[in-house]
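Possible regression after last week's pipeline update?

I re-ran a chain I had predicted before the update to compare outputs. Posting the input and the new output here so someone can diff against the archived version. Not blocking, just want to make sure nothing changed silently.
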Amino acid sequence: MTVPHVATAIAAGAVAGLGSVPHCMGMCGPLVAGVCSGPRDGVSYQVGRTLSYGALGGLSGSLVAAGTSPLSAELAATVTSMTLALGLLWVAARLVRSAWPRTASAAPLLTLKTKEAAEATQARASAPAAPGRWARLVRPVLRYPLLVGVASAVLPCAALVNMGVLAGATGSPVTGAVAGLAFATTTGGGLATSVWASTLLRETRAGSLVVAAVLVLGAGIVSARALPLLSGEGAGSAAPACHTDASVAVPGGPS
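New output (post-update):
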């Protein structure tokens, strides 16, 4: 394990986390809002998930440590660039969709659905509460944000699977744990600002569209940087130097 490998693991985990922020905001955002009642609870939740994600990354790296080469710089650049590009495009699509005006024909249907939802909510409120076995087991855990953060590592989450693959590709439990910690840090920042960001971006349609355009531009830039690696141009650029050295050495030999 060398410093470049650690730096690559940090970059891979951080960029994968950055691309997964929209997913985490949608999946874990409501959970965070329901469990955390203030900044102190939020910090406890983030500490728990950071520790569990680091442990998960270390476990992934340990499982494939034997016979697995560390993640090369070319592969890391390609994976991180494409992951970030997909994440940026996904966020841009959601912004454009949220900024698009609703049609007038949808108003009666929306009113009907709202009325039905209100009636269903009232019916559920009047019904006697009967918590099941699963609810009785989970309810004590929900009182402690630290435990909820630790348990978030076992949620069925595609973003976590992506992080596990990246951590395993490092071929080391240490760099795998580092990738997991970087992933937890970037996604944690997205969760912390999810409510503020969603409110800010939806204030005006023009603001949402401008941000979406910037995200699409960023996705194009990072994708363009990964194209030479995918086409193999980076590996082929080293060949002329070898031939040049050989051609220079020939005149100095015996005639």
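Follow-up from reviewer: compared with the archived run. The mean pLDDT is 69. Marking as no regression found.
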